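Quick one from the shared queue. A colleague (R.T.) flagged Aspartyl/glutamyl-tRNA(Asn/Gln) amidotransferase subunit B as missing a structural entry in our internal table.

Convert sequence to structure tokens.
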Amino acid sequence: MSKQYETVIGLEVHVELSTKTKIFCGCSTEFGGAPNTHICPVCSGLPGALPVLNRQVVEDALALGAATHCHVNRLCRFDRKNYFYPDNPQNYQISQLYLPICHDGWLDISTGGGTRRVRIHEMHMEEDAGKLVHDEWEDSSLVDFNRSGVPLIEIVSEPDMRNSEEVIAYLEKLRSICRYLGISDCKLQEGSMRADVNLSVREVGSDVLGVRTEMKNLNSFKAIVRAIDNERERQIELLEEGRQVEQETRRWDDNKEYSYAMRSKEDAKDYRYFPDPDLPPVYIDEQWMARTNEDLPEMREEKAARYMESWGLTEDEAALLTDSRNIAEIFEKTVSLCGQAKKAANWLTGETIRLARETSVDLDHVSFAPEHLAALITLTDKGDLNNQNARKVFEAIFTDDADPEIYMEEKGLKTVTDTGLLEEITDKVLSDNPKTVEEYKGGKTKVLGFLVGQVMKQMKGKADPGLVNRMLTERLVSYKLPKNDD
């Protein structure tokens, strides 16, 4: 009988913070600047330059620690992690090893296999390295130090995950928390959230950890899933062949769906850590911790549960609305203005998401006024707008934050309620379509939709389709086809 194997996974997640300036200097952290334009003597590692800690980085780390149930080291400090690489300007990285800011936290995740608690070993602050740009034509590499010194929080989990589904659930929850806290946009494609996967396999039933490898260069959730599945199979194949798994760092090539060894996996002693002599320890007092806890927002899970309980939304509706804190805030303000939770949810989970995808707008950056969405809902409730024209108005709200009432009047979209005019148009449509009327009277009632469409066309879309439907149905009961004189 072949052996059964269990996968054991731990993650090292780097979250790039959304501070305006870097962790130890005043240079901009804005993404996408021309190479080496967001640098100074500190972040480019010039001799004699001294670092000064950005307080906001500590605030963000404390908030994330509180949201992930971590303990806080009231006295934490920075250490130098020594290694030599072209994108590391000082030949060391300022990080935290001995006294990280947070430790021993946890997150509960839910998957098809149930609920699992993933323990967080530690969380520490550090600076990012620069970026190497490889020029294949010139066979050379260039260094861009714009990213050097950008603040990071590294979250190190315990090896508590067992498959790629659990890994993605953990990452999605961590990303949601960071976005709700407003500390990072967590865009994997821009590198503001990066995950290194530490993976080993062992026989089912064993409590001894296997030899682990670390997988790097994972810039999407799909890549992470493929890398985990590939590495699991690679390690099992080695063990089945009686060979050893080497402890090493591997680089994942998502285009080829293949990994290759980069270097042997380092231990802490290889980096020759020692306390940074240029940075004093950070002391976090009770008042600071109390302010952090008081300022924590309502998180996604609690918010979704409240939406279902308070407003009767479905689980899917609540999940879509709370995926972005920005959309959730628009929803709550809209409901407070018009009192129509279900209709507000429909606009935000339907048309808003559709238009955001079509225009490549991040939901966190949707910026129309809740007052305008509430006014649109009120206009439709009053019958001033039919569904078709309401969608046209909403597009103007989404793209230009247009006032719906002004836009409706300017574009002539207001529903016509003149029953006399509707009766006149209805009679004309019936008179112009005798064959369709005959089919209807012969029992083919589906043709009513065609007749409704003809009336709406004559009214240039400015009638209430429901009213037109009722009027046609009533008229057809007593309507007599004109006699054929032939």
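The chain has three domains: 5-287, 298-410, 419-478.
The first helix runs from residue 55 to 67.
Added to the table.
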